[in-house]
Specification:
226 residues; mainly alpha; Helix Hairpins; 2 domains; 0% strand
Length: 226
């Protein structure tokens, strides 16, 4: 039971997180781009420091190489002059400088590798940030389109409701009884109930003289005048 509840809670939290990420996707993209740019800036700073150290090491190496060359020439001249003390002292100094030169060469080689790797990493990061910014522009365009479509859908639904309501109102107006016709029918009903039309109806049926003039009577009268 506890494991089931834990699973349900985990699923609910995951769905809630997905909804939040979707709602704030553009803001999260911008934040990640800023973080990537910050990391890239830090990497560039590190690269600048490494290059500065490389240049310093190279300068020391060149200076050391120059000293070794100069001291070697002096040691040769001391040997030519049979001054063994100075020649041996120079030889000792040359040996120390050559050992230092080996260390500096190794240091420069490591720096070259670090600089190369970091430079490649920075170039890759720079391209990815450019791609991210392009993707962010597309994401904003899609989000604007989605927002517009959602608004249009809402307006369409609201408009459809308004049309249906207008149609119902029109139908209710058209479907209402004609009050004039209604009053005429009511008057006829009242006349029938009061027997005021009984004589007319009996005359029309041929029982007794006519109570009102008809078109036949007018025609007969006109013929008689002729």
């Amino acid at each position: 039971m506890f494991r089931t509840l834990t699973t349900l809670f985990a699923g609910a939290n995951a769905r809630a997180e997905d909804r939040v990420r979707d709602a704030f996707a553009i803001e999260l993209i911008d934040q990640k781009i800023r973080e990537a740019e910050g990391q890239l800036k830090a990497a560039k700073t590190t690269l600048a420091s490494l290059i500065q150290r490389q240049r310093s090491e190279d300068q020391h190496r060149q200076g050391l190489q120059t000293r070794i060359t100069a001291l070697t020439n002096r040691a040769k001249k001391a040997l030519e002059s049979d001054n063994m003390a100075l020649a041996e002292e120079a030889a000792g100094a040359i040996a120390q400088m050559e050992n230092e030169l080996v260390i500096r060469d190794q240091t420069l080689a490591r720096l070259d590798q670090k600089i190369l790797r970091l430079r490649n990493s920075i170039e890759t990061g720079q391209r990815r940030i450019v791609d991210l910014k392009q993707g962010a522009i597309q994401a904003r365009a899609v989000r604007r389109e989605q927002t517009i479509q959602a608004r249009m859908a809402g307006a369409s639904n609201h408009g459809a409701g308004s049309v249906e309501e207008a149609e119902e109102l029109i139908a209710s107006v058209i479907g209402k009884d004609d009050p004039f016709e209604h009053s005429q029918i009511l008057a006829e009903i009242n006349a029938d109930l009061s027997h005021s039309t009984l004589e007319d109806r009996m005359a029309d049926a041929g029982f007794g003289p006519a109570t009102r003039s008809t078109a036949k009577d007018v025609i007969a009268r006109l013929k008689a005048k002729k």
